[in-house]
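Let's practice the habit of predicting before peeking. Look at the sequence and jot down your guess about where helices and strands might fall. Then scroll down.
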Amino acid sequence: MFSSESLISAHDLTKKFGSFTAVDHIDFEVYKGECVGFLGPNGAGKTTTVRMIYCFLPLTEGELSVAGMSVATQAREIKNMVGVAPQEDNLDFDFSVIKNLQVYARYFDISKAEAEKRAKEQLTFFQLEEKKNVLISELSTGMKRRLILARALINEPQILLLDEPTTGLDPQARHLVWEEVRSLRKRGVTIILTTHYMDEAAALCDRILLMDNGKVIEQGRPSELIKKHIGADVLEVDNDEKLLQTLKAEFPDAQFETFGDRIHVFTTQPHGVFERFLEKNPFTNVTIRNANLEDVFLKLTGRGLKA
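Done guessing? Here is the structure:
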């Protein structure tokens, strides 16, 4: 369980690149020991926000503090307590797998013996010990991703920033990462996660901040957001005008959305209302499923592709 102590605080946080505003005067808090998911379409401002937190990008306007320290004036101290797994592959291709970890550990003044110990532990956990002496160029995409995650943990960080950590991983490796995130949360590590996998965010995050066009447009616990914006169940049926009118008459308070050749019906009524309706009005090619975080994401940010 996370505490009420604010560990990361942003007020009026803004980042501009020339005339383009990537992060647009946002406010948020991240509390000690919680896992917060930053969600949003490509270009929403998630990665830019994360990069400002670990002092990779300077602020344009506003305030941003980490553990009471300003990112503008105390970047060195902040970096010492933060672990970062960036989106991009920035491993050193001149070094072997284990050498990447050992050299990175030295940036944190970790002794050579301790760095070797931690490197071996991380390679064992991420099942890379058999690859410890090979060059980075010999690794698969998934192995590189796991090594980046191992490197992010080498300094035993108090805050872990994971920017799309499981992109390119197979299901087994993905769940290995989930296991490590849950373990770190139990040890009190504060985690910020950006991801395009809504099931990942729902499974790992205590709280969601949904961004679009550089702004935070909604935030809350995953279950609360689903209940607030979607409801309990979703009914999916073929797009038919006669059927649509029948559904609107039966569910006057429901929300209807047409996507391609399917109609999606969202209701805040309790579980079972769609089943009872279909018992009286049997239709073919009907799906009833639990509402999920992806429904919230698409409702609030739209279904069209972002530029």
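How did you do? The mean pLDDT is 91.
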